[in-house]
Amino acid sequence: MSTQTVSITNYGARLKLDDQDRRARVVRALYKAALIGETIVAQKTPVDRGQARNAWAVTPTATGAELYNDAPHAGILELGSRPHRPPLRPILEWVVRKFGTGKNTGKKSFVEFSEVEPHLFGIAKAIVRKIEAEGTRPHYMVRDSLPKLAEITKKQVEKALGDW
Which of 127, 128, 120 is closest to 85 using CA atoms? Predict the structure, then answer.
């Protein structure tokens, strides 16, 4: 996944001061802003089984914090994918979770392909063909959140410096 940086304009001179207490307040404010931002991007993350949504994390750094998602498919969710042929089984597993197998009412998983209704195979194959032709669409959960994240960051830093 690509790295996005939220920057604050007009704070350069204030942040460059050598005052350690002020710098520590700003670092804490940036960490607090990242924690708030984590909730925002998590809410915008599409969910099937929750792996990508639950993979958002914040790590404190010497200069503030890093908000990241280490789910293997987070970058694909953010930016989409080019046309490619995905494997059928994961798509079929998703279709079965979404619509059930039909043979055993309420069953949302399978072990053998013979357990799956033929019409569900048709749905999964149609999805594979669509991804093969068009790829997957981007969700831009980070890109679309950047203005809000910048606003939150600015408010937290202003509050930390205003308390000073």
Answer: 128
Convert the pLDDT of each residue in 97-107 to its tens digit: 888 765 655 56
Q: For tokens 């033929």, what's the residue?
A: 118
CB atoms within 10 A of CB 97: 12
Rounded to whole angstroms, the Cα distance separating 152 from 115 reads: 50
Does pLDDT of 164 surpass 70?
no
Q: Tokens representing 84?
A: 């490619």
pLDDT > 70? residue 120: yes
What is the radius of gyration, based on Cα positions, of the chain? 22
- Would you call 151 helix, strand, or coil by DSSP? helix
**Are residues 102 and 120 in contact, defined by beta-carbon separation less than 8 angstroms?**
yes
Tokens of 142: 């980070």
Q: What is the DSSP letter of 146?
A: H
Nearest to 31 by CA among 11, 12, 58, 54: 58
Does the pLDDT value for residue 112 go beyond 70?
Answer: yes
